[in-house]
Design brief:
alpha/beta; Immunoglobulin-like; 2 domains; eight-stranded antiparallel β-sheet; 13 helices; elongated
Length: 448
């Protein structure tokens, strides 16, 4: 039996951006914006999403990753009762909720950092941060030096080797589980977190809630170092993200297929995406806008746990600049949904339901069936059941003859069920795939 996250179809929310919250948290009053997020829930149900990754959420000074208080929802979004209601509404609709865990660093307004500023070497918390040194000042004028994340001194790095820090963070997570009933955590900067901390985190959270999911932000490296029975369940599959958009832009399906083959040992567990709050929108990355459709077909049918970044279902564009990520994180209200609705919206809805309803896409084995620069076909297995995806990145229709290692008679179109079944002759599916399109076919009648 697969877990909820193996069956997951994720929707990624960056709440400070999507609700139009102020960039800086300078006011004392609470502004209740969760009603905007609550309105997304029926929309997500309609499109087949059954999980949300939302974050950052907790009280911070600016972009959300400079945490002030791990036990308070950011006042620009609302209060704790607002988020508690949001999670409850999601659960009532069959949607799991995963939040951002920013445990590598805090903001400078976090209580432990402020205590060191005030009491210096007499502070109980002087060992809570990495590299604390009272012989020099930070570039921001703090009365001590410390290690900062990538040299950003507004983000002092926590000392996760300190048992008191680890215990504090575990207590925070226990609070999130007890107070909000969250279903998992996405670990910010997991690539630089202490491995022993993550092992202990896995043991602690497993005892807090059954099937609690831990996913880490990892860009480069051997993903199996993080994804294993002792540490995390999943990491962000940046390698596939890169190969998908460049594979389409360069008309080179070999790049995608090579990446999938290399990651197949752990690929079914990886968190897959085509854009996020740190990356240019896929609609802006692609050379051909017409490639959006087969790109999302790829995302939903290749091994992995697919995620769509908010606005992706409407083909929203956006690029980061040297100084700002604002265009990646625009305010979008459900009041705009009818205006933004487009054929891509309907396609993603179909893909979401197809993925959620077919176990071949959850834990199913991957098998490459046909590969050229501009055509690509592969199968996903569940026992003896096989689903074949055929993709065409060329502008012109492509006749594809796909060998299938199963004694089946016909193949049924899942994406376009109104189309006639495709006969299987001499062990091959022969069909013509329109330009910049694809087909998802479930084989009928027979066995391996």
């Amino acid at each position: 039996m697969s877990t909820w996250y193996e069956r997951g179809v994720f929707y990624h929310m960056y709440p400070l951006g999507m609700t139009g919250a102020p960039k800086h948290n300078e006011n004392t009053e609470i502004t209740h914006r969760f009603d905007q997020l609550n309105r997304y829930i029926p929309h997500l149900n309609q499109l087949g999403f059954n999980a949300i990754y939302i974050g950052p959420l907790f009280e911070s000074s600016s972009h959300g990753y400079d945490t002030r208080d791990y036990k308070l929802v950011d006042r620009r979004l609302g209060d704790n009762s607002d988020f508690k209601e949001f999670v409850a509404l999601c659960h009532q609709s069959g949607i799991k909720v995963v939040v951002d865990g920013v445990f590598n660093h805090t903001g400078r307004e976090f209580f432990a950092f402020r205590d060191i500023c005030e009491k210096r070497w007499d502070s109980t918390y002087k060992d809570w941060y990495k590299g604390v040194n009272f012989d020099w000042q930070s570039p921001l004028g703090d009365p001590f030096g410390f290690e900062a994340w990538q040299g950003h001194f507004e983000l002092p790095c926590l000392n996760l080797f300190n048992p008191a820090v680890r215990q504090y963070l575990f207590d925070v997570i226990r609070f999130w589980v007890n107070e909000f009933d969250i279903d998992g955590i996405r670990l910010d900067c997991a690539n630089v977190l202490d491995f022993n901390f993550m092992k202990e985190l896995r043991r602690e959270t497993a005892a807090m809630k059954e099937d609690f999911w831990l996913m880490g932000e990892v860009i480069h490296g051997d993903y199996s170092r993080w994804v294993n029975p002792e540490m995390l369940h999943s990491v962000t599959n940046y390698e596939l993200h890169k190969s998908i958009y460049s594979g389409f832009n360069d008309h080179n399906f070999f790049e995608i297929a090579h990446n999938v083959r290399r990651l197949e040992a752990i690929g079914r567990e990886l968190y897959t995406f085509v854009d996020n709050h740190d990356e240019d929108r896929i609609a802006s990355k692609l050379t051909k806008h017409d490639h959006l459709a087969p790109v999302y077909m790829c995302l939903f049918t290749l091994p992995g746990i697919p995620s769509v970044y908010y606005g992706g279902e409407w083909g929203v564009e956006g690029k980061r600049t040297r100084t700002s990520d604002d265009d990646l994180r625009p305010a979008i209200s459900m009041d705009q949904a009818d205006t933004l609705h487009c054929p891509l919206t309907d396609l993603i809805g179909k893909l979401g339901h197809i993925h959620a309803e077919n176990p071949e896409f959850h834990t199913g084995r991957y098998q490459e069936l046909l590969l050229t620069n501009r055509q690509y076909a592969y199968g996903r297995w569940d026992g003896d059941s096989l689903i074949v995806t055929a993709l065409n990145s060329d502008d012109n229709p492509a006749a594809m003859s796909i060998p299938v290692p199963v004694n089946a008679n016909t193949a049924v179109h899942l994406l376009e069920p109104e189309l006639e079944e495709v006969p299987i002759e001499n062990g091959k599916i022969n069909l013509t795939v329109p330009g910049n399109w694809g087909a998802i076919l479930k084989l009928k009648g027979g066995s391996k």
